[in-house]
Design brief:
Length: 135
């Protein structure tokens, strides 16, 4: 394979990774949620709820990630007063992953929100954070 072809293949691979293809895709996240089970993730999120503080986002150290959440292959786990964000993909201006809402919280799946949420099962959603458009 020529150097030019090798470089083109590498660039294509990086582009696909940057578009969310592969193991960190939303579809893969949903599959992992079904494998682990939404009820189990809900219980684990409930255990992390004690870390939540009003108006703050708390980073959970990897050593404190519950087993089911670890199986979602997170890059980062954060707790807010509304639930647990399991970040699976991040670029400078976009991220997506799995959101586990606390039992006492409602999540809107209305379009054009940022972050936007899409129901997977129970109180477990995919989420996407997009760049803020500036005029």
């Amino acid at each position: 394979m020529s150097l030019a072809r090798s470089a083109a293949a590498m660039l294509l691979g990086f582009a696909l990774l940057g578009c969310g293809a592969g193991d960190n895709s939303k579809e893969e996240g949903a599959k992992l949620v079904h494998r682990v089970g939404a009820p189990i993730l809900g219980v684990e999120a409930g255990h992390l709820k004690e870390r939540a503080r009003p108006g703050l986002t708390i980073l959970v150290p990897e050593s404190a990630w519950p087993e089911g959440i670890t199986q979602l292959k997170p890059l980062e786990v954060r707790v807010t007063e509304k639930g647990v964000f399991v970040e699976r993909f991040k670029q400078p201006e976009q991220e997506h992953g799995v959101f586990i809402a606390f039992a006492d919280r409602r999540v809107s799946t209305e379009p054009d929100q940022n972050p936007s949420f899409s129901l997977i099962d129970g109180a477990v959603y995919t989420y996407t954070v997009r760049p803020v458009k500036r005029d």
